[in-house]
Amino acid sequence: MFARTLRRMRVFKRFARARRGSAAVEFALVLMPFFLLTFGLAEVAMIGFAQTSLDYAVTETARQIRTGQAQMGGVSEAQIEAQLCDELNNFIAMGCDGNLYLDVRRFASFTDASNGAQNPIQNNQFSDAGMGYQPGAASDIVVVRAYYRWQVLTPMFEPVFQNISGGQRILVSTMMFRNEPYA
Strand 168-178 and strand 141-151: pairing? Predict the structure, then answer.
């Protein structure tokens, strides 16, 4: 029995000293975490780039409302949404149909504007009910909110990045300002 145990120990020692195939084993051990890290980083970068694009589009589109060009020119909600979509697609191709939502509200004071913010995400669902288009008049306080429904690209990261069901994330951009006295 002692000889059999000694033989087994020799086999294990020989296996531990063997160097053939060690690079393949090490590569296999490192491969999965490397790809997880790479895909996770790419997903975060895409979401960040989409968020930055949305922020830029809201800033450029809200300028039309703030300066009174939209009100004086009779620009409709559909035209503002089309302009927002055009600005959004300057850097990255993002489908706007059914994914982009706009909410423009007029408030009596900045306090009302900060207290009147409604969360469109309820029970892991996005609802566009209650959104409207009220660009206000000269010197009115206006809040422009844009929501974009982003589909998480990597299924493995859906539980981490999604904030509504279905593997989707709602990106939000908000701008609050007082309209210029353009009248």
Answer: antiparallel
